[in-house]
């Protein structure tokens, strides 16, 4: 954890947050930002003077780091040039009332702008001269869609040519990285000539850069731009001014300001630590796997769920020493059914019905992980425990789901032995019912898929990426019969079949899709399906179908298509079709899987077999699954439409 004592001032542009200007300031301060960029529109629509804004900010302990933007200033033909200088003087008045000394001038986008760096430099030098008389400064930023200036080096050349101490460069990661421009040369600039640094990430999208910037920016770590490379270059220059988040994003405009602000600060703390500055962060955990999942149930749901688990080969393996909590086990998979009254689980049950209320990851060092989570402003959780019972440290995911951290250094098994009466493998005594065969043992939990409310994907990506060091995979679009689902998986870096943590996250704008219905019907986010890893899907599904496991029937059309899509021999194809197994393959390997119908229309299970180095999730088959589940749910079997 290399870190320098220097901690950057952390700032956020008001355009990044929802609400009125005072609400934005209040949220930024409450979460712990040092400063804000006042975006001009937020001031124009505020029913109070700039001096009022200054007083509100001061009262909240917030510095106004910059006033922005000042547009279309430089290199205009003559009558406009004079008017622009007058305009600058009026905005200097505003800045002095606001109590900020820096204004952001973004490169001119007007068709009438003159393509002449010398004119641009002369105009900016004149503006800087006027600013200096009032102890103000001017920063010049290249917009990626500027008419003549759209790269940082062009802006820097103009700043150099103007050669005025009150004029400096502003760099914004988005504009540089969106054009795929090389930021490395920023390292060679004198750091004190960079007046301000704005950070933004974005998902990779193919669209015009203006629309991309105005609607799809997000916080560093939420997108796919190499913000780290940009920041390393900036910091190598010696720049030590504020790091400021400037995010134009339709979802952020609608989200609660404090949630957005918290994500922003988490992102900046992470970015700063990665760059080797600030107090530093404890290393992310090595996640060995999902040790258990806990379901919130009442007595009726417990009985129904335990029957379903029985059909999947799970046995009742233990009972908690002091609570209404039961352990179900199959091979390496532990599922806990919690029907204890007056507990966090029962609260969860009241809100969401039968559902997963906690996940437990096995990590190399739980205490270090908790310290990292705390430094990243996560909410920690401490459950009351009985005498002699193990206290498992936990934190809350952004939706409130508990994530327990089981320390792999301590004997993992002992969390079960300390807290549970464990039953022998086969119940003793004549009255014991003969156990059904379990089929091949499950290797572990392969992945846990979650449905998230629309607009919350970025928040969860940031959480898992920064706290756990999970790697976000590319975005998938899955067609549900009733709308589109977007899916992005976060995977622990060393995940292998039967090991590691994989968390596909799904969102849907439609309320009628599997994801949309889950979120609206169960009041919020949650675990939507759980996939168990097996080394032999064929044997497992064959065995479990005999025990009545409710695997989904797959349309014959699917297998006709499979036969032409992949080079499968007839015997393999016949096996897949007979067991109704879904199939995918890529250059790395193969994937065989089967889904159950959903439990209470809430969540469902999957069994997956990974062969070779296949790392995906069979997303190509999700549409089939969703269509079959929808048909079962609606009772809309084709027979109804055929006479
Ligand atoms: O989209 C814009 O106009 C705009 C304005 C100011 C900025 O700093 C910026 O990065 C973009
Ligand atoms: Mg900017």
From TrEMBL:
Annotated pathway: Aromatic compound metabolism; 3,4-dihydroxybenzoate biosynthesis
Q: Where does the chain bind Mg(2+)?
A: 447, 529, 606
**Which of this chain's residues are annotated to bind a divalent metal cation?**
141, 172, 198, 246
Which PROSITE patterns does its entry note? VOC
> Coiled-coil segments, which residues?
none
Look up keyword Lyase and say if it applies: yes
* Record domain VOC: where: 289-408, 444-597
Q: Is-annotated flag, keyword Mitochondrion?
A: no
Q: Which reaction does it catalyse?
A: 3-dehydroshikimate = 3,4-dihydroxybenzoate + H2O
Instruction: Give UniProt keywords alphabetically.
Output: Lyase, Metal-binding
* EC number(s) on file: 4.2.1.118
Q: Which cofactor does it need?
A: a divalent metal cation
The job of this chain, per UniProt, is described as: Catalyzes the conversion of 3-dehydroshikimate to protocatechuate (3,4-dihydroxybenzoate), a common intermediate of quinate and shikimate degradation pathways.
Could you tell me which HAMAP family the record lists for this protein? DSD (MF_02238)
Write out the similarity annotation.
Belongs to the bacterial two-domain DSD family.
Q: What is this protein called?
A: 3-dehydroshikimate dehydratase
């Amino acid at each position: 954890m290399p870190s320098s004592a220097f901690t950057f001032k952390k700032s956020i542009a008001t355009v990044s947050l929802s609400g009125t200007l005072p609400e934005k300031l209040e949220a930024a301060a409450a979460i712990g930002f040092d400063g804000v960029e006042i975006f001009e529109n937020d001031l124009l629509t505020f029913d109070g003077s700039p001096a009022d804004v200054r007083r509100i900010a001061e009262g909240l302990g917030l510095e106004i780091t910059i006033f922005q933007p000042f547009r279309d200033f430089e290199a205009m033909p003559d009558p406009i040039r004079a008017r622009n200088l007058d305009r600058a003087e009026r905005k200097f008045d505003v800045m002095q009332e606001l109590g900020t000394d820096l204004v952001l001038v973004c490169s001119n986008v007007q068709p009438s702008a003159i393509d002449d760096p010398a004119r641009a430099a002369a105009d900016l030098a004149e503006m800087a001269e006027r600013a200096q008389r009032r102890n103000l400064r001017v920063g010049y930023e290249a917009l990626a869609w500027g008419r003549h200036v759209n790269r940082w080096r062009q802006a820097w050349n103009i700043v150099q040519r103007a050669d005025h101490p009150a004029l400096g460069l502003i760099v914004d990661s988005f504009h540089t990285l969106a054009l795929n421009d090389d930021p490395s040369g920023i390292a060679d600039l004198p750091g004190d000539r960079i007046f301000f640094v704005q950070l933004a990430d974005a998902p990779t999208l193919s669209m015009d850069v203006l629309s991309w910037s105005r609607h799809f920016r997000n916080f560093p770590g939420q997108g796919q731009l190499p913000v780290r490379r940009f920041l390393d270059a900036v910091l190598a220059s010696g720049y030590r001014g504020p790091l400021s988040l400037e995010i134009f994003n339709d979802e952020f405009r609608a989200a609660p300001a404090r949630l957005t602000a918290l994500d922003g600060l988490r992102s900046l703390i992470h970015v700063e630590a990665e760059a080797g500055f600030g107090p530093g962060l404890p290393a992310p955990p090595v996640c060995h796997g999902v040790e258990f999942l806990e379901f919130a149930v009442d007595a009726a749901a417990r009985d129904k769920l335990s029957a379903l688990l029985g059909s999947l080969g799970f046995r009742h393996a233990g009972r908690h020493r002091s609570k209404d909590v039961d352990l179900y086990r199959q091979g390496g998979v532990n599922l806990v059914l919690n029907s204890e009254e007056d507990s966090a689980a029962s609260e969860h049950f009241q809100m969401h019905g039968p559902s997963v209320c906690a996940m437990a990851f096995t990590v190399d060092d739980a205490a270090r992980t908790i310290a990292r989570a705390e430094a990243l402003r996560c909410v920690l959780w401490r459950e009351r425990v009985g005498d002699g019972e193990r206290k498992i440290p936990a934190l809350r995911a952004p939706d409130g789901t508990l994530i327990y951290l089981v320390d792999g250094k301590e004997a993992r098994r002992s969390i079960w032995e300390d807290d549970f009466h464990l039953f022998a493998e086969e119940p003793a005594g004549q009255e014991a019912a003969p156990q059904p065969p379990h089929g091949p043992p499950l290797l572990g939990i392969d992945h846990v898929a979650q449905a998230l409310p629309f607009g919350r994907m970025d928040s969860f990506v940031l959480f898992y990426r920064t706290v756990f060091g999970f790697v976000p995979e590319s975005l998938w679009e899955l067609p549900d019969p009733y709308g589109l689902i977007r899916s992005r998986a976060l995977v622990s870096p060393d995940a292998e079949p039967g090991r590691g943590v994989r968390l596909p996250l799904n969102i849907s704008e439609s309320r009628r899709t599997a994801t949309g219905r889950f979120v609206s019907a169960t009041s919020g986010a949650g675990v939507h399906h759980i996939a168990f890893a097996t080394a032999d899907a064929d044997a497992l599904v064959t065995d479990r179908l005999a025990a009545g496991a409710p695997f989904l029937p797959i349309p014959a059309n699917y297998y006709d298509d499979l036969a032409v899509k992949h080079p499968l021999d007839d015997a393999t194809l016949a096996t897949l079709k007979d067991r109704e197994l879904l199939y995918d393959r890529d250059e790395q390997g193969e994937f065989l899987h089967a889904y159950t119908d959903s439990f209470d229309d809430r969540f469902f299970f999957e069994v997956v077999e990974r062969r070779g180095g296949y790392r995906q999730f069979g997303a190509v088959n999700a549409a089939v699954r969703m269509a079959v589940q929808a048909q079962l749910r609606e009772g809309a079997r084709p027979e109804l439409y055929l006479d």
